[in-house]
């Protein structure tokens, strides 16, 4: 790739890095924010959940808006909104201000991230070039999260408001560069095509209620009727959305994309993989701080090895994809994740860091092998006019996956907690650690199906090529460039 192509990729990757460090730093800073502002437990929880609700609730709409209203326009607009509300969060003096700021920041990320992903898939030619760009994009996002844990710990020492202000500075630099580098490739306007307002209302309503239901799962059986009602309401609205889309001449989401098995399997695989990854990281963080008594900064430094994918995703993974194929590399990533999380199941009260290191390193390596190729698979073969939609579906899957993973381990931990004291806490953690293992086992099964389908497709392509070659060798006129009878 040329200099300008790399510069554009750096800007687009910068936004996923920005999103990653923003989430990670907030996770580290919450205790300090709660103490300084005197927040109630539920308000502090909603500072995190508000972001998830905004992100997961609007990602599908965000991806389609990039296709309909223009990728460049959506990218620049929502990067600006992200910058503004991150800054407002740093100025907050009340809990509700923080919750509102985080919710709107999540909505901004829901529009900005799919736009960035679709800009990559439409700016770089399909094949090795695009694959390289997507692998760099995926690795940068993971690096943002891993480094955000450490950066968040350091900034929190200076004052928690810097956790909000630091992303403002990075977002401002990215915005200035993006204005110059992001190409003008706006798609057809919504006005010319017609805008599916009923589809927007039902989609956003269903996604918001689904996200709220997932967040509610963290409470286990507490107020379970509310969780059930919100889940049922989400299903009703999802059904209404399908009915609306089938009847709309210009639907928000062309339902036919959900019949592309490879795309659906990639999205489901990403959901399971991210759910396991973040669920595991959440449990390990609690183990190190609550059982072992490590500080947030010590914990962040210990977990930074999981960010090894930032180095391996753009260097090792492209070579493996070229050598073995995308589907096989995804299978390898899932298998490594099963091994990594399985090794941590017998975690002890006084495990040394050396005992934890294999799991932490292997989980980062698994991320490098699986996530980038899943991103490729989720957008491969999709028409250019629907790349934003494909990116929105993938981002929706990853956001719901991370939320489901954390909610599931939290709920299982709560149900398994039958006593007080370090031993009871450790026992509950061990039970919760089975959740990531189950998720990646399911993901392995799905990835094996994709690998089998990829082998079948390769055999069919080989057979067609052989037949074509035999026709060519049997037809002298065709060999010399003449017109064959079937051309």
Can you put this structure into words, describing what you see?
The chain has 487 residues and is mainly α. Helix content is 81%, strand content 0%. The protein is built from 19 helices and no strands. The chain has helices at 3-37, 41-69, 71-90, 95-123, 128-158, 162-181, 190-193, 197-217, 224-247, 261-291, 296-303, 309-312, 316-324, 326-343, 353-379, 387-416, 422-432, 434-474, 476-479. Residues 478-487 have low confidence and may be disordered.
In short:
The chain crosses the membrane at residues 45-63, 75-93, 99-121, 133-156, 162-182, 194-212, 224-244, 264-288, 300-317, 329-349, 355-377, 389-416, 428-451. The protein has 487 residues and is mainly alpha-helical.
Strand percentage: under 5%
Mean pLDDT: 84
Based on CA inertia axes, which overall geometry fits? globular
Alpha-carbon Rg, integer: 23 Å
**Which residue ranges are poorly predicted, with pLDDT under 50 across at least 5 consecutive positions?**
478-487
Helix/strand class? mainly alpha
List the helices and strands in order.
Answer: HHHHHHHHHHHHHHHHHHH
Major β-sheet annotation: none
Per DSSP, the total helix count is 19
Distance between the termini: 36 Å
Number of strands: 0
Helix content, binned percent: over 70%
Subcellular location: Cell membrane
Transmembrane segments: 45-63, 75-93, 99-121, 133-156, 162-182, 194-212, 224-244, 264-288, 300-317, 329-349, 355-377, 389-416, 428-451
Membrane topology: Multi-pass membrane protein
Biased composition (Low complexity): 465-474
């Amino acid at each position: 790739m040329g200099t300008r192509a790399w510069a554009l990729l750096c800007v687009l990757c910068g936004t996923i890095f920005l999103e990653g460090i923003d989430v990670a730093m907030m996770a580290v800073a919450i205790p300090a924010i709660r103490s300084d502002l005197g927040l109630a437990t539920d308000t502090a929880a909603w500072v995190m959940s508000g972001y998830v609700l905004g992100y997961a609730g609007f990602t599908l709409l965000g991806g389609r808006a990039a296709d309909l209203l223009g990728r460049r326009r959506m990218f620049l607009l929502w990067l600006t909104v992200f910058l503004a509300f991150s800054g407002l969060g740093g100025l907050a003096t009340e809990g509700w201000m923080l919750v509102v700021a985080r919710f709107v920041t999540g909505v901004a990320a829901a529009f900005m991230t799919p736009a960035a992903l679709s800009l990559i898939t439409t700016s770089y030619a399909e094949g090795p070039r695009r694959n390289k760009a997507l692998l760099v994009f995926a690795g940068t996002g993971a690096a943002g999260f891993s480094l955000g844990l450490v950066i968040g710990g350091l900034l929190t020492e200076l004052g928690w408001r810097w956790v909000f202000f630091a992303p403002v500075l990075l977002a401002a630099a990215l915005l200035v560069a993006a204005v110059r580098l992001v190409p003008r490739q706006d798609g057809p306007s919504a006005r010319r095509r017609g805008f599916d307002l009923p589809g927007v209302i039902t989609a956003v309503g269903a996604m918001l209620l689904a996200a709220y239901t997932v967040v509610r799962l963290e409470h286990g059986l507490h107020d379970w009727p509310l969780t059930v009602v919100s889940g049922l309401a989400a299903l009703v609205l999802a059904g209404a959305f399908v009915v609306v889309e089938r009847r709309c001449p210009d639907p928000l989401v062309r339902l036919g994309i959900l019949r592309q098995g490879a795309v659906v399997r990639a999205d489901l695989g990403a959901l399971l993989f991210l759910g396991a990854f973040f669920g595991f990281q959440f449990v390990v963080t609690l183990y190190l701080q609550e059982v072992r008594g490590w500080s947030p900064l010590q914990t962040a430094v210990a977990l930074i090895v999981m960010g090894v994918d930032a180095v391996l995703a753009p260097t090792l993974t492209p070579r493996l994809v070229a050598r073995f194929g995308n589907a096989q590399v995804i299978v390898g990533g899932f298998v490594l994740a099963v091994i990594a999380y399985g090794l941590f199941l017998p975690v002890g009260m006084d495990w040394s860091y050396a005992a934890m290191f294999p799991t932490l390193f292997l989980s980062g390596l698994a991320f490098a092998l699986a996530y980038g190729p899943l991103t490729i698979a989720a957008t491969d073969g999709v028409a250019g006019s629907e790349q934003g939609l494909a990116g929105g579906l993938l981002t929706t899957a990853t956001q719901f996956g991370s939320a489901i993973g954390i909610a599931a381990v939290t709920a299982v931990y709560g149900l398994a907690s039958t006593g007080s004291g370090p031993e009871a806490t450790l026992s509950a953690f061990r039970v919760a650690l089975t959740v990531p293992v189950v998720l990646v086992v399911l993901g392995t099964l799905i990835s094996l199906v994709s690998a089998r389908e990829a082998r079948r497709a390769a055999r069919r392509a080989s057979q067609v090529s052989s037949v074509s070659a035999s026709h060519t060798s049997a037809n002298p006129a065709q060999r010399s460039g003449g017109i064959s009878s079937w051309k």
